[in-house]
Structure formats: C-alpha cells, structure tokens
Amino acid sequence: MRRVLAQRLKLCRDKKGFTQGQVAIYCDITEKAYQNYELMTREPKIEILIRIADLFEVSLDYLVGRTEQP
Fold first, then answer.
1. Which single residue of 4, 7, 15, 41 has CA 20 to 30 Å from 59?
2. Whole-number Cα distances in Å, 20 to 63, 64, 66, 69
3. Are 37 and 23 in contact (CB under 8 A)?
4. 16-27: string of b/e by CB count within 10 Å (b at 16+)?
5. Angle at 18 between CA 49 and CA 39, to 5 degrees
6. What is the reported pLDDT for 20?
C-alpha cells in the first residue's frame, strides 16, 4: 500500500499543479511531513489522508490502490 500511496500522492499533486508546501498547508501539517508520505518513509493518519483525498478530489480507495478509478 505504501508504494502505491506514495506514487498516487505525487501523481495527483502534479495533476493539480500543487507544490508539496501547498498540500501541507491545506492539511495543516509540515511540508517535511508531506514529503515523507511521497518518499514512503511515513504513512499519513486517516484524518490527513481524508483531507488529501478531498483536496485532490479522489477517493481513499484510489489513493491506497484499491481501485483505478479516482
């Protein structure tokens, strides 16, 4: 799951044209914390994952690789 999550976070962020800092501000976390999610060194708490999914307008299932449909 971590690898798929990291890949999809970067893919969605790039598609939306956001920087890591912008995503971090929206999620009320540090930029370093968000970077760790994309680098697969940490996993976000569910509350943060929900915020990210809302920001990117995708489902949680898509972010974690349970479906190919955003």
1. 41
2. 16, 19, 24, 23
3. no
4. eebebeebbeeb
5. 55
6. 98
Q: Is the pTM value of this prediction over 0.85? A: yes
Q: For the chain, give every domain's residue range.
A: 2-63
CA dihedral 6, 11, 14, 16 (to 10 degrees): -110
Residue type, 43: E
- 62 pLDDT tier (thresholds 50, 70, 90): very high
**Three-class DSSP labels, 24-60:** HHHHCCCHHHHHHHHCCCCCCCHHHHHHHHHHHCCCH
